[in-house]
Design goal:
CATH architecture of the largest domain: Alpha-Beta Complex
CATH class of the largest domain: Alpha Beta
Number of strands: 10
Bound molecules: coenzyme A
Helix content: 40-55%
Number of domains: 2
Distance between the termini: 26 Å
Shape: globular
Strand order of the largest sheet: 1-2-3-5-7-10
Radius of gyration: 19 Å
Length: 259
């Protein structure tokens, strides 16, 4: 499948997706959102794709936000529709049973920071910058930033970042838990791939169930403990569980069938 604004490369079950508008710092215009929606259809339906590594083209930016040039002509209702569209797309990423990792290789601002936060976790290169600069434009984060940022870094820190419209560097993002690891730009994708390959050696059933259980209370505002019981049940009786437990008892490495 080809995309106007995304590059894709599938290797060892990991689909590397590069948002590819480097001359506009990979800003999310309507076409990028449409391409990402089509990408999600593919990720959900293609069994060859077992994980997604999301990054931005060029040395400067992951994604520098929603495309500001599309804002001025939008009515309030169109603004609301745009926010809803971005939110729906980012929910699809967040609730995907296959792991998504953001490799933040430069500016992750506004919708770019929100896109990274919709992934299951984040790595950054040491030149990365994060922020929600929407107040500088007279708007607020609209693709889930007001909800995910406080969840990830705490209410007070999120308030300061969102209200000040400022930026933090990779070291600060690491210190406050917005990213899990910081590397050099050269090592970023390789480090992310290494982590994903470890995850891919585990039971795909368990990984998918774990994502749903971890997300339950935070994302869907439901009783997370009840969802955990349900998802725990969902692992029992699967071939993955039989293989994992049998392999342990036989003192060998499991080979998970993925169902
Ligand atoms: N939407 C549309 N275009 C964007 C963009 C965005 N969010 N971010 C960057 N661009 C474009 C610039 O307009 C410029 O295009 P041009 O060369 O046709 O003029 C190009 O990308 C390069 O950006 P530039 O501003 O020249 O780079 P810089 O290194 O001087 O500054 C930033 C980098 C990230 C600080 C700056 O681009 C910026 O503040 N971007 C907007 C960030 C933002 O507010 N995002 C939230 C949007 S809701």
């Amino acid at each position: 499948m080809t995309y106007e604004t995304l590059l894709t490369d599938l290797e060892q079950g990991i689909l590397t997706v590069t948002v590819n508008r480097p001359d506009k710092l990979n800003a999310l215009n309507h076409m990028v959102l449409a391409d990402l929606d089509r990408l999600m259809d593919l990720v959900m339906s293609d069994p060859e794709i077992r994980a997604v590594l999301l990054t931005g083209a060029g040395p400067k930016a992951f994604v520098a936000g929603a495309d500001i040039s599309e804002f001025l002509q939008a009515s309030p209702d169109e603004g609301a529709a745009l926010a809803k569209r971005g939110q729906d797309l980012f929910f699809r990423i967040e609730s995907c049973p296959k792991p998504f990792v953001a490799a933040v290789n430069g500016f992750a601002l506004g919708g770019g920071c929100e896109l990274a936060m919709s992934c299951h976790f984040r790595l950054a290169s040491d030149n990365a910058r994060f922020g929600q600069p929407e107040v500088n434009l007279g708007i607020i984060p609209g693709y889930g930033g007001t909800q995910r940022l406080p969840r990830l870094i705490g209410l007070g820190r999120a308030m300061e970042l969102i209200l000040s419209g400022g930026m933090i560097d990779a070291a600060e993002a690491h210190r406050i838990g917005l990213v899990n690891h910081v590397t050099t730009p050269e090592m970023l994708l390789e480090t992310a791939r290494g982590i994903l390959l470890t995850i891919l050696s585990k039971s795909p059933v368990a990984v998918g169930q774990a994502i749903a259980a971890v997300n339950a209370a935070a994302v869907n505002d439901v009783d997370g403990y009840a969802v955990e019981v349900d998802r725990f049940r969902g692992c029992f009786g699967t071939e993955d569980m039989k293989e994992g437990v049998t392999a342990f008892l036989e003192k060998r490495k499991p080979i998970f069938p993925g169902h």
